[in-house]
Amino acid sequence: MVGIYCRISGDKIDGKDTSIETQEMQGIAFAASMGMDYKIYIDRGISGKAEIESRIKFREFLKDIKDGRITHIYAINQSRIERNPDTWRIFVSTVLLAEAKWYPNGSYFDLDNTTNRLMANMMSVMNEFHSDNTSDNVKLAFESNAKKGKGHGIRAYGIKYDDDGFMVKDEAEIEVVKDIFEWSLSGMGAYTIANKLNLDEVPTRFEKLGKSTTTKEQNTGKLIKHSNKKWWGSTVHGILTKKLYCGVHVWNGEEIELPDLAIISKEEFYKVQENLKKNKKESIGKNITYNYLLNGLMYCLDCGHMYKGVIKRKSRDNSYKCSGKMAPIHECKYSRGINIPRFETFILKHLFESKSLQEHLNKFDEDKDLLDILQAEKNAVNKKLSDAVKSETRSFNLLLDGDFADDERLKAKYKTDKEKVIKLKKLLAQAEEKIALQKNNYRLGIVNNVMNGFDFNGGFEASLKAVNTIIERIDIRYQKLEKNGVFSFVIKYKGFNETSIWTTNQQMTEFTLNGYYKASNEPISRPEVIVPTEFTDYISHSSSREFLNSLIDKYRSKDFPEDFENTTNLKFGVLDSIVINKEELVVFN
Question: Which of 6, 40, 96, 332 could make an SS bond with 324 (beta carbons 3.0 to 4.6 A apart)?
Answer without folding.
Answer: 332
